[in-house]
Amino acid sequence: MLEIIIPGSLKDIWVNVPVREPFAARSCYRLAHADGQYEVIDDRQGFRYAIRLPAEPSWYGQLTSRGLPMHQIGVLQGTYLAIYISNLCGFWYHSPRMNCSFCTTGLNLGVNESALKNVQDVVEVAQAAKRESGVTFVHFNSGNQTNRDLDRAAHYVNAVKSRVGALVGLQLMPTRDLWKYDRLIELGTDHFSFCVEFHNPEYFEKFCPGKARFVGQETFYRALEYTSRQLGKGTCSGEVIAGLEPVEDTLKAIDYITSVGAFPTVCIFRPTIGADLEDSPPPRYEEMRLVFQHVYQACEKNRIPIDVAPNIEVSLVVQPGDTRYLAPRNLESRWYDFRQALLRLVARPYFWWNRRRRKAQGSAELSY
Ligand code: SF4
Predict the structure, then answer these.
(1) Residue 239 CB-density burial (10 A; 0-12 exposed, 13-18 middle, 19+ buried)
(2) Closest to 246 in 3D by CA, of 206, 302, 216
(3) Based on the domain organization, do 273 and 145 belong to the same domain?
(4) Residues 168, 157 contacting (CB under 8 angstroms)
(5) Residue 89 Cβ < 6 Å to ligand 1
(6) 144 C-beta closer than 6 A to ligand 1
(7) What is the tens place of the pLDDT at every residue in 137-157?
(8) How many distinct structural domains can be found in the chain?
(9) Going by CA atoms, what residue is nearest to atom 7 of ligand 1?
(10) Cα–Cα distance between 163 and 355 in angstroms, integer?
(11) Is residue 367 part of a domain?
């Protein structure tokens, strides 16, 4: 995978580009380099687009005080720090395997990352990423940890909030014990994200057998609704994959997510090498364009704040703010854009305050 930045008049777009998969070799887009400038060339008409490649962060080469390479603890994805609390996912170890069909997490374990992150390592990496890369947001992610995810996450949230000072997001398996979200909010969690993946229950069951059997689609929805209510409009997100279920279902997912005050993040299905679906075709451009136009329209209709938090650009999924390029140029969209710009300005002190280091609560020093 290759991360590129496409400069634009409304905003720069961060994109994670597939390069190793066979379908990528058939792409009409080609990366070229000349005189220190990178370009993407569209071989159909010969159009050329200047792009940038983000530099590798200097702290990737540093070690934590426990001697671990920092890039094994966390990586920049776009402009935020992404940390897998653990990339062990219980669904991969179930017999028979119950992993999601598009996933390759179980193949990577121990190759690129350490299995379970130590809190001290996480703090040191987050401090380095904030100091040297200007990171404002730390995002914790994990596969299925059999309902221990949120308990484990509490230590990391507490440590980052008290020893680093950054916005913190969690993307973990949802729980029906909704009180656990209250505890995480008390500790300072700013954002929750829920990977429901599919809106159509049949596709959810077919492609996410572990989630369907042990968690349930309803658990994702109830957790999203609850956390959105607790944290406020535009703070939480529902994540879906576009390109496997019928496009009408993806549009319904976007409608649902925005109707509960959350923002949709949409991954374009990628037949990754090694995934159960590696031989499936990638989705069609026309359908994806429709999906992302709908993201913009649904956010506009439900007045969801987009691109308000400072310095959070994402390459792995398409953010609602990226879809501004597909917005109809009319009075409504201009008014919506104007309100977002105003909100960005007004919200600055709020985000500054939320990025302060705060007093640790209880067991911040616990480590794994
Ligand atoms: S929950 Fe699904 S997508 Fe997430 S790590 Fe496990 S198998 Fe992969």
Answers:
(1) buried
(2) 206
(3) yes
(4) yes
(5) yes
(6) yes
(7) 999 999 888 778 899 899 999
(8) 2
(9) 99
(10) 11
(11) no
